[in-house]
Amino acid sequence: MKAQYIIGVHDGHNAAAALVKDGFLEFAIQEERLAGTKNYYGFPTRSIQACLAHSGLRPDDIEELAFASMRRAPARFQVRSQRTSIEREQTLVGTARRLALWYPVYRIAHNLGWSERRATAVKLGFRAEQCQRYPHHLGHAATAYFGMRKDPNSPHLVITLDGKGDLESGTVSIGERGQLRRIAATPFTDSLGAIYALTTGAMGFVPLEHEYKLMGMAPYASSQYAAAATEAFRQLIEVDRDGLRLRRRTVEPTFAVLRRLHAMLRGMRFDNACAGLQNLCEEIVVDLVGAAIRKTGIRNVVCAGGVFMNVKANKRLRELPEVDYLGIAPSCGDESMSFGIAWYAQARRTGDGTAIPPLDGNIYVGTDVADQDAARVVEASGYSYHRHGDIEAEVAKILSSGHPVARCKGRMEFGARALGNRSILADPRNPDVVRVINQMIKKRDFWMPFAPVVRYERLRDYFEASEGFESPYMMHTFDTGDRVGEFMGAVHNADLTARTQTVRREHNPDYYRILSCFEEETGRGVLLNTSFNLHGEPIVLGPEQAMHVFRKSGLEYLALGQYLVAK
To answer: Looking at the chain, which terminus has fewer C-beta neighbours within 10 angstroms, N or C?
Structure first.
Protein backbone atom coordinates (compact mmCIF):
# COMPACT_ATOMS: atom_id res chain seq x y z
CA MET A 1 0.00 0.00 0.00
CA LYS A 2 1.29 3.45 -0.91
CA ALA A 3 2.37 5.58 2.06
CA GLN A 4 0.25 8.61 2.85
CA TYR A 5 2.14 11.85 3.47
CA ILE A 6 0.64 14.99 5.00
CA ILE A 7 2.43 18.26 5.70
CA GLY A 8 1.08 20.36 8.55
CA VAL A 9 1.69 24.11 8.40
CA HIS A 10 1.62 26.94 10.91
CA ASP A 11 2.16 30.16 8.98
CA GLY A 12 1.96 32.78 11.73
CA HIS A 13 4.15 33.73 14.69
CA ASN A 14 6.88 31.11 15.15
CA ALA A 15 6.03 29.49 11.81
CA ALA A 16 6.77 25.81 11.31
CA ALA A 17 6.03 22.79 9.14
CA ALA A 18 5.89 19.05 9.87
CA LEU A 19 5.79 15.90 7.74
CA VAL A 20 3.62 13.00 8.87
CA LYS A 21 3.85 9.59 7.16
CA ASP A 22 0.92 7.26 7.84
CA GLY A 23 0.42 9.02 11.17
CA PHE A 24 4.09 8.92 12.23
CA LEU A 25 5.90 12.22 12.77
CA GLU A 26 8.81 11.95 10.32
CA PHE A 27 10.18 15.49 10.32
CA ALA A 28 9.40 18.90 11.82
CA ILE A 29 11.23 22.21 11.83
CA GLN A 30 10.63 25.86 12.69
CA GLU A 31 11.18 28.46 10.01
CA GLU A 32 13.34 30.55 12.35
CA ARG A 33 16.16 27.98 12.16
CA LEU A 34 16.28 28.15 8.38
CA ALA A 35 15.65 31.88 8.01
CA GLY A 36 17.94 32.95 10.86
CA THR A 37 15.21 35.17 12.33
CA LYS A 38 14.08 34.33 15.85
CA ASN A 39 10.32 33.66 16.20
CA TYR A 40 9.87 34.06 12.43
CA TYR A 41 6.40 35.31 11.46
CA GLY A 42 5.05 34.39 8.03
CA PHE A 43 4.70 31.57 5.56
CA PRO A 44 7.22 28.74 6.31
CA THR A 45 8.44 28.27 2.73
CA ARG A 46 11.85 26.88 3.73
CA SER A 47 10.34 24.52 6.29
CA ILE A 48 7.92 23.04 3.76
CA GLN A 49 10.77 22.55 1.31
CA ALA A 50 12.83 20.90 4.08
CA CYS A 51 9.94 18.48 4.76
CA LEU A 52 9.92 17.48 1.09
CA ALA A 53 13.70 17.18 0.90
CA HIS A 54 13.90 15.02 4.02
CA SER A 55 12.02 12.15 2.37
CA GLY A 56 12.83 12.97 -1.26
CA LEU A 57 9.26 13.95 -2.04
CA ARG A 58 7.63 16.25 -4.53
CA PRO A 59 4.51 18.35 -3.88
CA ASP A 60 2.43 15.84 -5.87
CA ASP A 61 3.42 13.11 -3.39
CA ILE A 62 1.65 14.96 -0.56
CA GLU A 63 -1.97 14.06 0.14
CA GLU A 64 -2.73 17.30 1.93
CA LEU A 65 -1.14 20.57 2.99
CA ALA A 66 -2.98 21.18 6.27
CA PHE A 67 -3.03 24.75 7.65
CA ALA A 68 -3.59 25.24 11.38
CA SER A 69 -5.76 28.38 11.32
CA MET A 70 -8.76 29.59 9.37
CA ARG A 71 -7.67 33.24 9.29
CA ARG A 72 -4.38 34.96 8.64
CA ALA A 73 -3.75 38.67 8.13
CA PRO A 74 -2.54 39.36 4.56
CA ALA A 75 1.20 40.00 4.39
CA ARG A 76 0.79 43.74 3.78
CA PHE A 77 -1.05 44.12 7.10
CA GLN A 78 1.15 41.89 9.24
CA VAL A 79 2.99 43.53 12.14
CA ARG A 80 6.12 41.44 12.61
CA SER A 81 7.51 43.50 15.50
CA GLN A 82 5.51 42.75 18.63
CA ARG A 83 7.20 45.63 20.44
CA THR A 84 6.01 48.05 17.74
CA SER A 85 2.50 46.66 18.05
CA ILE A 86 2.50 47.24 21.82
CA GLU A 87 3.76 50.81 21.44
CA ARG A 88 0.98 51.57 18.97
CA GLU A 89 -1.70 50.08 21.22
CA GLN A 90 -0.70 52.29 24.16
CA THR A 91 -2.28 55.31 22.51
CA LEU A 92 -5.97 56.13 22.66
CA VAL A 93 -6.09 56.19 18.85
CA GLY A 94 -4.46 52.77 18.71
CA THR A 95 -6.97 51.31 21.15
CA ALA A 96 -9.90 52.83 19.23
CA ARG A 97 -8.54 51.49 15.93
CA ARG A 98 -8.25 48.00 17.38
CA LEU A 99 -11.78 48.01 18.79
CA ALA A 100 -13.54 49.78 15.91
CA LEU A 101 -11.63 48.43 12.91
CA TRP A 102 -9.55 45.33 13.60
CA TYR A 103 -12.04 43.61 15.94
CA PRO A 104 -15.12 43.66 13.64
CA VAL A 105 -13.09 42.84 10.52
CA TYR A 106 -11.45 39.85 12.21
CA ARG A 107 -14.82 38.52 13.39
CA ILE A 108 -16.61 38.92 10.06
CA ALA A 109 -13.88 38.06 7.55
CA HIS A 110 -13.94 34.26 7.78
CA ASN A 111 -11.69 33.92 4.71
CA LEU A 112 -9.18 36.57 5.75
CA GLY A 113 -5.90 35.85 3.98
CA TRP A 114 -6.90 32.39 2.71
CA SER A 115 -6.52 33.09 -1.01
CA GLU A 116 -3.03 34.54 -0.40
CA ARG A 117 -1.94 31.56 1.67
CA ARG A 118 -3.19 29.11 -0.93
CA ALA A 119 -1.54 31.08 -3.76
CA THR A 120 1.79 30.93 -1.93
CA ALA A 121 1.45 27.15 -1.67
CA VAL A 122 0.69 26.92 -5.39
CA LYS A 123 3.93 28.81 -6.12
CA LEU A 124 5.74 26.03 -4.26
CA GLY A 125 4.25 23.44 -6.62
CA PHE A 126 1.18 22.35 -4.69
CA ARG A 127 -2.31 22.28 -6.20
CA ALA A 128 -4.97 24.50 -4.66
CA GLU A 129 -7.13 21.46 -3.87
CA GLN A 130 -4.32 19.98 -1.75
CA CYS A 131 -4.64 22.91 0.67
CA GLN A 132 -7.04 22.54 3.60
CA ARG A 133 -7.45 24.73 6.68
CA TYR A 134 -8.67 23.97 10.18
CA PRO A 135 -9.56 26.05 13.27
CA HIS A 136 -6.61 27.24 15.32
CA HIS A 137 -7.61 25.64 18.61
CA LEU A 138 -8.43 22.38 16.90
CA GLY A 139 -4.75 22.38 15.98
CA HIS A 140 -3.74 22.81 19.63
CA ALA A 141 -6.24 20.17 20.79
CA ALA A 142 -5.01 17.68 18.19
CA THR A 143 -1.39 18.29 19.22
CA ALA A 144 -2.23 17.59 22.86
CA TYR A 145 -4.51 14.61 22.25
CA PHE A 146 -2.73 12.68 19.53
CA GLY A 147 0.74 13.52 20.82
CA MET A 148 0.32 13.12 24.59
CA ARG A 149 -2.51 10.63 25.25
CA LYS A 150 -1.73 7.54 27.31
CA ASP A 151 -3.69 5.26 24.99
CA PRO A 152 -6.26 5.78 22.23
CA ASN A 153 -9.25 4.19 23.97
CA SER A 154 -9.23 5.85 27.40
CA PRO A 155 -10.97 9.24 27.60
CA HIS A 156 -8.72 12.27 28.00
CA LEU A 157 -9.59 15.81 29.00
CA VAL A 158 -8.03 18.09 26.36
CA ILE A 159 -7.37 21.69 27.43
CA THR A 160 -6.07 24.50 25.19
CA LEU A 161 -5.21 28.06 26.25
CA ASP A 162 -3.33 30.80 24.39
CA GLY A 163 -3.51 34.47 23.45
CA LYS A 164 -5.87 34.04 20.54
CA GLY A 165 -6.40 31.94 17.45
CA ASP A 166 -9.24 32.55 15.01
CA LEU A 167 -12.09 33.61 17.35
CA GLU A 168 -10.98 31.70 20.46
CA SER A 169 -8.40 31.74 23.23
CA GLY A 170 -9.18 28.40 24.85
CA THR A 171 -11.16 25.18 24.54
CA VAL A 172 -12.12 22.13 26.57
CA SER A 173 -12.61 18.88 24.68
CA ILE A 174 -12.88 15.16 25.31
CA GLY A 175 -10.59 12.91 23.32
CA GLU A 176 -11.52 9.26 23.05
CA ARG A 177 -11.13 6.45 20.50
CA GLY A 178 -9.17 8.68 18.16
CA GLN A 179 -11.74 11.49 18.06
CA LEU A 180 -12.09 14.93 19.62
CA ARG A 181 -15.39 16.31 20.92
CA ARG A 182 -15.43 19.92 22.05
CA ILE A 183 -17.55 20.74 25.11
CA ALA A 184 -16.59 24.38 25.83
CA ALA A 185 -14.71 27.34 24.37
CA THR A 186 -13.43 30.73 25.53
CA PRO A 187 -13.69 33.61 23.02
CA PHE A 188 -10.54 35.58 22.21
CA THR A 189 -12.10 38.61 23.92
CA ASP A 190 -11.60 36.83 27.28
CA SER A 191 -8.01 35.70 27.02
CA LEU A 192 -5.58 34.89 29.84
CA GLY A 193 -2.76 34.67 27.31
CA ALA A 194 -3.51 38.17 26.03
CA ILE A 195 -3.28 39.59 29.56
CA TYR A 196 0.09 37.90 30.11
CA ALA A 197 1.42 39.11 26.73
CA LEU A 198 0.21 42.69 27.21
CA THR A 199 1.70 42.85 30.70
CA THR A 200 4.99 41.63 29.22
CA GLY A 201 4.87 44.51 26.74
CA ALA A 202 3.79 47.03 29.36
CA MET A 203 6.92 46.19 31.36
CA GLY A 204 9.18 46.89 28.43
CA PHE A 205 9.72 43.34 27.21
CA VAL A 206 8.74 41.72 23.90
CA PRO A 207 5.27 40.10 23.95
CA LEU A 208 5.03 36.51 22.65
CA GLU A 209 8.72 36.06 23.45
CA HIS A 210 9.72 37.30 26.92
CA GLU A 211 6.83 36.05 29.04
CA TYR A 212 9.20 33.54 30.62
CA LYS A 213 11.22 36.43 32.06
CA LEU A 214 8.22 37.57 34.10
CA MET A 215 7.64 34.01 35.29
CA GLY A 216 11.31 33.84 36.29
CA MET A 217 11.16 37.07 38.30
CA ALA A 218 7.92 36.19 40.14
CA PRO A 219 9.44 34.06 42.96
CA TYR A 220 11.64 36.95 44.07
CA ALA A 221 8.65 38.99 45.32
CA SER A 222 7.67 39.00 48.98
CA SER A 223 4.41 37.19 49.75
CA GLN A 224 2.84 40.33 51.24
CA TYR A 225 3.25 42.51 48.16
CA ALA A 226 2.63 39.61 45.78
CA ALA A 227 -0.79 39.07 47.39
CA ALA A 228 -1.81 42.69 46.75
CA ALA A 229 -0.61 42.50 43.15
CA THR A 230 -2.49 39.24 42.63
CA GLU A 231 -5.71 40.81 43.85
CA ALA A 232 -5.27 43.63 41.33
CA PHE A 233 -4.81 41.16 38.45
CA ARG A 234 -7.85 39.16 39.60
CA GLN A 235 -10.02 42.12 38.62
CA LEU A 236 -9.28 41.36 34.96
CA ILE A 237 -10.47 37.77 34.47
CA GLU A 238 -12.03 34.77 36.21
CA VAL A 239 -13.21 31.21 35.53
CA ASP A 240 -16.82 30.39 34.71
CA ARG A 241 -16.84 26.94 36.33
CA ASP A 242 -20.25 25.94 34.97
CA GLY A 243 -19.43 27.01 31.42
CA LEU A 244 -15.83 25.70 31.57
CA ARG A 245 -14.52 28.92 30.07
CA LEU A 246 -12.75 32.09 31.09
CA ARG A 247 -14.72 35.29 31.55
CA ARG A 248 -13.28 38.79 31.59
CA ARG A 249 -14.22 41.15 34.39
CA THR A 250 -13.54 44.28 32.34
CA VAL A 251 -15.80 46.19 29.95
CA GLU A 252 -13.23 46.14 27.16
CA PRO A 253 -11.96 42.85 25.65
CA THR A 254 -8.72 41.55 27.11
CA PHE A 255 -6.83 42.38 23.92
CA ALA A 256 -7.58 46.06 24.64
CA VAL A 257 -6.65 46.28 28.35
CA LEU A 258 -3.18 47.74 27.81
CA ARG A 259 -4.11 51.24 28.96
CA ARG A 260 -5.84 49.76 32.02
CA LEU A 261 -2.70 47.72 32.75
CA HIS A 262 -0.48 50.81 32.60
CA ALA A 263 -2.69 52.51 35.19
CA MET A 264 -2.77 49.39 37.36
CA LEU A 265 1.00 48.84 37.25
CA ARG A 266 1.94 52.45 37.94
CA GLY A 267 3.96 52.51 41.16
CA MET A 268 3.96 48.70 41.47
CA ARG A 269 7.45 47.24 41.83
CA PHE A 270 8.60 44.99 38.99
CA ASP A 271 8.95 41.77 40.98
CA ASN A 272 5.58 42.27 42.70
CA ALA A 273 3.83 42.82 39.37
CA CYS A 274 5.41 39.65 37.97
CA ALA A 275 4.31 37.66 41.01
CA GLY A 276 0.76 38.97 40.79
CA LEU A 277 0.49 38.05 37.12
CA GLN A 278 2.05 34.62 37.65
CA ASN A 279 -0.23 33.86 40.59
CA LEU A 280 -3.25 34.80 38.48
CA CYS A 281 -2.07 32.53 35.68
CA GLU A 282 -1.61 29.56 38.00
CA GLU A 283 -4.95 30.14 39.73
CA ILE A 284 -6.89 30.40 36.47
CA VAL A 285 -5.31 27.29 34.94
CA VAL A 286 -5.83 25.19 38.07
CA ASP A 287 -9.40 26.45 38.53
CA LEU A 288 -10.38 25.73 34.91
CA VAL A 289 -8.86 22.25 34.79
CA GLY A 290 -10.26 21.36 38.21
CA ALA A 291 -13.76 22.42 37.15
CA ALA A 292 -13.47 20.38 33.94
CA ILE A 293 -12.39 17.27 35.86
CA ARG A 294 -15.29 17.61 38.28
CA LYS A 295 -17.78 18.07 35.44
CA THR A 296 -16.55 15.23 33.22
CA GLY A 297 -15.05 12.82 35.74
CA ILE A 298 -12.02 12.43 33.44
CA ARG A 299 -8.71 12.48 35.34
CA ASN A 300 -6.28 12.05 32.43
CA VAL A 301 -5.42 15.56 31.20
CA VAL A 302 -3.49 16.68 28.12
CA CYS A 303 -2.76 20.31 27.29
CA ALA A 304 -1.41 22.58 24.55
CA GLY A 305 -1.36 26.26 23.66
CA GLY A 306 1.08 29.00 24.60
CA VAL A 307 -0.17 29.38 28.18
CA PHE A 308 1.14 25.88 28.94
CA MET A 309 4.69 26.97 28.14
CA ASN A 310 4.40 28.29 31.71
CA VAL A 311 6.12 25.48 33.60
CA LYS A 312 5.14 26.84 37.03
CA ALA A 313 1.46 26.58 36.11
CA ASN A 314 2.11 23.06 34.81
CA LYS A 315 3.66 22.17 38.18
CA ARG A 316 0.51 23.32 39.98
CA LEU A 317 -1.58 21.17 37.63
CA ARG A 318 0.62 18.13 38.14
CA GLU A 319 0.23 18.44 41.91
CA LEU A 320 -3.59 18.47 41.81
CA PRO A 321 -4.88 15.33 43.57
CA GLU A 322 -7.65 15.06 40.96
CA VAL A 323 -5.13 14.62 38.13
CA ASP A 324 -4.05 11.03 37.50
CA TYR A 325 -2.04 11.83 34.37
CA LEU A 326 -0.82 15.11 32.88
CA GLY A 327 0.67 15.42 29.41
CA ILE A 328 1.95 18.76 28.13
CA ALA A 329 2.74 18.86 24.41
CA PRO A 330 6.39 19.67 23.57
CA SER A 331 6.99 23.35 22.77
CA CYS A 332 3.24 23.73 22.92
CA GLY A 333 2.95 27.23 21.44
CA ASP A 334 1.70 27.69 17.90
CA GLU A 335 4.76 26.02 16.34
CA SER A 336 3.71 22.53 17.51
CA MET A 337 0.34 22.85 15.77
CA SER A 338 2.22 21.97 12.58
CA PHE A 339 2.31 18.30 13.54
CA GLY A 340 -0.94 18.39 15.53
CA ILE A 341 -2.96 19.51 12.53
CA ALA A 342 -1.20 16.97 10.29
CA TRP A 343 -2.27 14.24 12.72
CA TYR A 344 -5.84 15.54 12.67
CA ALA A 345 -5.88 15.61 8.86
CA GLN A 346 -4.58 12.02 8.84
CA ALA A 347 -7.31 10.92 11.25
CA ARG A 348 -9.98 12.70 9.19
CA ARG A 349 -8.82 11.09 5.96
CA THR A 350 -8.48 7.53 7.28
CA GLY A 351 -11.33 7.62 9.80
CA ASP A 352 -9.03 5.94 12.32
CA GLY A 353 -7.39 8.30 14.77
CA THR A 354 -6.50 5.39 17.06
CA ALA A 355 -3.73 4.33 14.68
CA ILE A 356 -1.75 7.55 15.21
CA PRO A 357 1.08 6.76 17.65
CA PRO A 358 1.60 9.24 20.50
CA LEU A 359 4.99 10.83 21.00
CA ASP A 360 7.18 8.55 23.10
CA GLY A 361 9.57 11.21 24.39
CA ASN A 362 11.62 11.49 21.21
CA ILE A 363 11.24 14.89 19.56
CA TYR A 364 14.56 14.81 17.68
CA VAL A 365 12.85 15.14 14.30
CA GLY A 366 14.79 17.95 12.59
CA THR A 367 17.81 18.12 10.31
CA ASP A 368 20.81 15.88 10.94
CA VAL A 369 24.53 16.67 11.16
CA ALA A 370 26.29 14.79 8.36
CA ASP A 371 29.87 13.76 9.10
CA GLN A 372 31.16 15.23 5.84
CA ASP A 373 29.54 18.59 6.61
CA ALA A 374 31.05 18.67 10.10
CA ALA A 375 34.48 17.76 8.65
CA ARG A 376 34.29 20.49 6.01
CA VAL A 377 33.36 23.17 8.55
CA VAL A 378 35.99 22.29 11.16
CA GLU A 379 38.74 21.95 8.53
CA ALA A 380 37.98 25.45 7.25
CA SER A 381 37.64 26.99 10.72
CA GLY A 382 41.31 27.62 11.48
CA TYR A 383 40.88 26.16 14.99
CA SER A 384 42.58 23.07 16.33
CA TYR A 385 40.35 20.01 16.20
CA HIS A 386 40.41 16.25 16.57
CA ARG A 387 37.99 13.54 15.50
CA HIS A 388 37.16 11.22 18.40
CA GLY A 389 35.67 7.76 18.17
CA ASP A 390 34.04 8.36 21.57
CA ILE A 391 33.34 12.09 21.49
CA GLU A 392 30.83 11.74 24.34
CA ALA A 393 33.52 10.56 26.78
CA GLU A 394 35.75 13.47 25.74
CA VAL A 395 32.94 15.96 26.30
CA ALA A 396 32.29 14.51 29.76
CA LYS A 397 35.97 14.91 30.70
CA ILE A 398 35.99 18.58 29.65
CA LEU A 399 32.74 19.22 31.51
CA SER A 400 34.12 17.61 34.66
CA SER A 401 37.13 19.94 34.50
CA GLY A 402 34.78 22.93 34.74
CA HIS A 403 34.62 24.06 31.11
CA PRO A 404 31.29 24.47 29.25
CA VAL A 405 30.98 22.65 25.91
CA ALA A 406 28.70 23.57 23.01
CA ARG A 407 27.22 20.50 21.31
CA CYS A 408 25.80 20.11 17.80
CA LYS A 409 25.24 16.49 16.86
CA GLY A 410 22.46 14.27 15.52
CA ARG A 411 18.98 15.32 14.50
CA MET A 412 17.87 18.70 15.77
CA GLU A 413 15.23 18.80 18.48
CA PHE A 414 11.96 20.57 17.66
CA GLY A 415 10.77 23.66 19.48
CA ALA A 416 11.78 26.42 21.81
CA ARG A 417 13.68 24.22 24.29
CA ALA A 418 17.17 22.92 23.51
CA LEU A 419 17.20 19.23 24.42
CA GLY A 420 20.85 18.30 24.10
CA ASN A 421 21.59 18.06 20.38
CA ARG A 422 21.85 21.85 19.93
CA SER A 423 22.85 22.76 23.50
CA ILE A 424 25.56 24.25 25.66
CA LEU A 425 26.39 21.88 28.52
CA ALA A 426 28.19 22.63 31.76
CA ASP A 427 28.90 21.31 35.25
CA PRO A 428 26.22 22.95 37.45
CA ARG A 429 27.88 22.29 40.81
CA ASN A 430 29.53 25.71 40.88
CA PRO A 431 26.91 28.49 40.62
CA ASP A 432 29.63 30.69 39.09
CA VAL A 433 29.18 28.72 35.86
CA VAL A 434 26.06 30.84 35.25
CA ARG A 435 28.18 34.00 35.21
CA VAL A 436 30.74 32.35 32.94
CA ILE A 437 28.16 31.21 30.38
CA ASN A 438 26.42 34.59 30.44
CA GLN A 439 29.69 36.41 29.85
CA MET A 440 30.66 34.00 27.09
CA ILE A 441 27.50 33.98 25.07
CA LYS A 442 24.03 34.06 26.61
CA LYS A 443 23.71 37.59 28.08
CA ARG A 444 20.60 36.44 29.96
CA ASP A 445 18.84 38.62 32.53
CA PHE A 446 20.56 38.14 35.87
CA TRP A 447 17.52 36.61 37.58
CA MET A 448 16.86 33.92 34.96
CA PRO A 449 17.90 30.37 35.87
CA PHE A 450 19.40 27.74 33.61
CA ALA A 451 18.00 24.21 33.43
CA PRO A 452 19.29 20.79 34.52
CA VAL A 453 19.28 17.52 32.60
CA VAL A 454 19.37 14.05 34.18
CA ARG A 455 18.99 10.48 33.05
CA TYR A 456 15.37 9.32 33.41
CA GLU A 457 16.12 6.64 36.00
CA ARG A 458 17.95 9.16 38.22
CA LEU A 459 15.21 11.82 38.28
CA ARG A 460 13.89 10.94 41.74
CA ASP A 461 17.40 10.83 43.18
CA TYR A 462 17.70 14.58 42.64
CA PHE A 463 14.17 15.97 42.23
CA GLU A 464 10.79 15.53 43.88
CA ALA A 465 8.80 13.59 41.30
CA SER A 466 6.23 10.82 41.38
CA GLU A 467 7.16 7.27 40.40
CA GLY A 468 7.40 6.81 36.63
CA PHE A 469 7.07 10.50 35.78
CA GLU A 470 9.40 11.94 33.16
CA SER A 471 10.03 15.28 31.48
CA PRO A 472 11.69 14.65 28.09
CA TYR A 473 10.55 17.95 26.57
CA MET A 474 11.49 20.20 29.51
CA MET A 475 7.84 21.24 29.99
CA HIS A 476 7.76 20.69 33.77
CA THR A 477 9.45 22.18 36.80
CA PHE A 478 10.27 20.29 39.99
CA ASP A 479 11.13 20.96 43.61
CA THR A 480 14.69 19.99 44.44
CA GLY A 481 15.77 17.61 47.18
CA ASP A 482 18.67 17.35 49.58
CA ARG A 483 21.25 17.04 46.79
CA VAL A 484 20.55 20.46 45.30
CA GLY A 485 24.10 21.56 46.12
CA GLU A 486 25.33 19.22 43.37
CA PHE A 487 23.59 21.26 40.65
CA MET A 488 23.05 24.69 42.20
CA GLY A 489 23.93 26.47 38.95
CA ALA A 490 20.87 24.98 37.24
CA VAL A 491 18.11 25.86 39.71
CA HIS A 492 16.03 28.94 40.41
CA ASN A 493 17.80 30.80 43.20
CA ALA A 494 14.64 32.19 44.78
CA ASP A 495 12.57 29.02 45.21
CA LEU A 496 15.09 26.24 44.34
CA THR A 497 12.85 24.77 41.64
CA ALA A 498 14.25 23.44 38.38
CA ARG A 499 12.89 23.08 34.83
CA THR A 500 14.32 19.61 34.34
CA GLN A 501 14.86 17.49 31.25
CA THR A 502 14.95 13.70 31.56
CA VAL A 503 16.76 11.55 28.99
CA ARG A 504 16.18 7.90 28.12
CA ARG A 505 18.94 5.89 26.45
CA GLU A 506 16.62 4.79 23.62
CA HIS A 507 15.65 8.38 22.76
CA ASN A 508 19.15 9.85 22.59
CA PRO A 509 21.94 7.34 23.32
CA ASP A 510 24.81 9.81 22.73
CA TYR A 511 23.38 12.48 25.03
CA TYR A 512 22.63 9.78 27.60
CA ARG A 513 26.24 8.59 27.38
CA ILE A 514 27.57 12.09 28.16
CA LEU A 515 25.54 12.06 31.39
CA SER A 516 26.75 8.56 32.24
CA CYS A 517 30.41 9.40 31.59
CA PHE A 518 30.11 12.64 33.55
CA GLU A 519 28.79 10.70 36.54
CA GLU A 520 31.68 8.24 36.24
CA GLU A 521 34.10 11.21 36.31
CA THR A 522 32.45 13.17 39.14
CA GLY A 523 29.99 10.96 40.99
CA ARG A 524 27.23 13.43 40.07
CA GLY A 525 24.46 12.73 37.54
CA VAL A 526 23.13 16.20 36.64
CA LEU A 527 24.36 18.61 33.96
CA LEU A 528 23.38 22.17 33.08
CA ASN A 529 21.74 22.47 29.65
CA THR A 530 21.01 25.74 27.84
CA SER A 531 20.32 26.55 24.21
CA PHE A 532 23.20 26.88 21.74
CA ASN A 533 22.68 30.33 20.23
CA LEU A 534 23.77 33.94 20.43
CA HIS A 535 21.51 36.28 22.35
CA GLY A 536 18.55 37.27 20.14
CA GLU A 537 19.26 34.61 17.50
CA PRO A 538 17.57 31.23 16.91
CA ILE A 539 19.10 28.00 18.21
CA VAL A 540 21.74 26.80 15.76
CA LEU A 541 20.65 24.68 12.81
CA GLY A 542 23.80 22.78 11.80
CA PRO A 543 27.60 22.93 11.40
CA GLU A 544 27.81 26.37 9.75
CA GLN A 545 25.63 28.05 12.35
CA ALA A 546 27.39 26.21 15.19
CA MET A 547 30.79 27.44 14.00
CA HIS A 548 29.41 30.98 13.58
CA VAL A 549 28.28 31.07 17.22
CA PHE A 550 31.53 29.46 18.40
CA ARG A 551 33.55 32.08 16.56
CA LYS A 552 31.47 35.04 17.79
CA SER A 553 31.30 33.94 21.43
CA GLY A 554 33.65 33.23 24.30
CA LEU A 555 33.07 29.49 24.07
CA GLU A 556 36.27 27.48 24.25
CA TYR A 557 35.04 24.03 23.21
CA LEU A 558 32.70 22.84 20.48
CA ALA A 559 31.63 19.23 19.97
CA LEU A 560 30.50 19.18 16.33
CA GLY A 561 29.49 15.71 15.27
CA GLN A 562 32.46 13.49 16.14
CA TYR A 563 34.85 16.47 16.13
CA LEU A 564 36.07 18.36 19.18
CA VAL A 565 37.11 21.92 18.30
CA ALA A 566 39.13 24.05 20.75
CA LYS A 567 40.24 27.67 20.82
So the answer is: N
